[in-house]
Fold:
Amino acid sequence: MTQRIACIGGVTLDRMVEPLERLRAGTSNPVRSETSTGGSARNIAEALSRLGCPVSLFSRLGHDAAGEQVVDELMEAAIDLDGIDRVATHSTASYTAVLDESRELVLGLADMEILDDLEPTWLDPIADALGEHRLWIVDANLPAPVLERLAGFAVEGVSIFADPVSAEKSERLAPILGRIDSLFPDRIEAAALAGVTEAETDPGELAARIRDRGPRRVVITLGAEGVWVDEPPRHERVPAMATSAVVNVTGAGDCFVAGYVFAQLATAAVDPVRCGLAAAALAVESPRAVPAELTAEALLERYRSSG
Structure:
């Protein structure tokens, strides 16, 4: 597989804090914590690299210990980092999840200032490097003006895939929806993009509304229910693949996108949607957002064994 893929967007240092006993407000609580690297663009880049795809990552990190940790892990994953900008003016983006004793999220703390403050001119020094890639995967951690300028750089023949990241950030994609080839929202993000206040609206209706705004293809991820595919003439729900256990759902959506892209570029005749679901199944069985077990061989084996 020789086509190089550009992943453009968020890279974060993620911390998960879990109490050792019942949480009590207003006082010190004993906890255990785990640290890992995250961000949609970063996760997709790692997953694609593990699947054997040549991939470049374009983002911004701080000149801090967190940034060094992220770079070390990305280099280990064999990802091209020439598009990583390092600055001393901001801390590396981070997300801290505070869980309760039932492992439900109590508080999420996001420090994304390093990305929120990006100006469209950030793209100018990397424009030539981006031009060497025919497939761009962008996430909505980038501000809307950056996304709009980025879409303007995409010459004919460049495909843009997009991850809305969250309901709040999804509207950042509004100015470029007509330039997006494939959009991968979850149900809540799809409702926001469709202008629907009730997220339980039928996913087929949500997808149709979003496609009216411009994307060629909309795939709504539905968790344990699988995905809804809207790519004429295909309009259907595809069920999730069976898993041995659900350990961690954090990276399932990002691995789905990677599996989908892998299938689109593969020489073998495989369905991108079902390949994405196979990658998601492997992801939820692992404690890591992007499992080390995610290889092309393992993906195709899960794909074929699912029927």
